[in-house]
Amino acid sequence: MNPIPANLSTGVEITTTLKWTSGGGNPDDYLVSLYKTDPLTYIVNNQVTTSTTYNLPVHLEYSTTYYWRVIPRNSFGPAIACPTWSFTTIPDPSVMTYPWTENFDGSEFPPTDDWLRRGGDLVDPIQLGGNSLWEQENWLNISGTDKAAGINIWGNLNGWLITPQFLFNEDSDYLYFDLALLKYNQPPNGTPPDTTGIDDRFAVLISDGYTWSTANIMREWNNSGSPYVLNNISPWGERVCIPLNGFTGHNRIAFFAGTTISNADNDFMINNLYVGPLIPDTPEVQISQVGDDLCLLTWNESSGATGYDIYAADSPEGPWELIASTAETQFEFTAQAAKKFYRVKAIAR
């Protein structure tokens, strides 16, 4: 009956559709079953359909062997001795090692085939189609080796840049990236960005990557009431940090830029993506003498830090030697006869 996926096939997508052909006998309908073993779990069990195509109600699991059977039925009853077929799904392609970074400096864009470029309005129900408006650009429109992902928004158009799939096992990761808004093809010290884009939107979303909705928006910049004002995005770039609290399992992150009116003509750019643990703020360090031969390093408490590592070197270029670790915001040490340089690094352990 020509099963698709073929019997014993491997590398099957987790979104596969089951297909077959009639073996004759003028069936009125079919009973479809799909299950896995260890333990025995039915995804569908004798589900009735009149079609020779069956769309599964759920996404399958990665690296899993499934067994399925189709039983034709007509007025004489169900067919007997119908074969059971099997197939194995693809290994999990998700990013699993963190921190994960991307700077878009490579020779290919998107950086890998796991990235997606799509188009579609940020209005429910969201329906995405093909789109290639996101491109590799010179970061801040300054020629050089520092590249970025960018999109020019000037009329009734939009674009989605969607990351590879992540597997989050904990809900304590963070997304960092650099964001810039520039006048089309202008550097930060050139013509300022247009401020007439009252309908322009830039948003960051997260979902399973198969369906998207406005409920997936984690943060949106616009000029129509958002606390994150789009016109205030710096043309010199600014660092953005978005907590990924509460997101576990398989997820993709999407960057959306779009407009519905032809007014402002601006470039949106993102660069230096990071997904992983919180990066503590950089401490501001001061040194003072507290005795004849004692010195004291003090610094401000860094948001997200659980401790601090203190390094010393004979020159500003290093090499740097770890001399102490502390949970405090100060460190006392004996003054040295030779000049020393000190560095404090905030740590999130």
Main attributes?
single chain; 349 residues; mainly beta; Immunoglobulin-like; Jelly Rolls; six-stranded mixed sheet; 0% helix
- N-to-C SSE string, H for helix and E for strand: EEEEEEEEEEEEEEEEEEEEEEEEEEEE
Structural class: mainly beta
Name the CATH homologous superfamily of the largest domain.
Galactose-binding domain-like
Low-confidence spans: pLDDT under 50, at least 5 residues? none
- Number of separate strands: 28
**Percent helix among the residues?**
under 10%
Rg calc: 28 Å
Q: Tell me, what's the shape?
A: extended
- Give the termini distance in whole angstroms: 57 Å
CATH class of the largest domain, named Mainly Beta
CATH architecture of the largest domain: Sandwich
**Tally of separate helices:** 0
Strand % is: over 45%
Q: Supply the number of structural domains.
A: 3
Protein name: Fibronectin type-III domain-containing protein
Organism: Cloacimonas acidaminovorans (strain Evry)
InterPro entries: FN3_dom, FN3_sf, Ig-like_fold
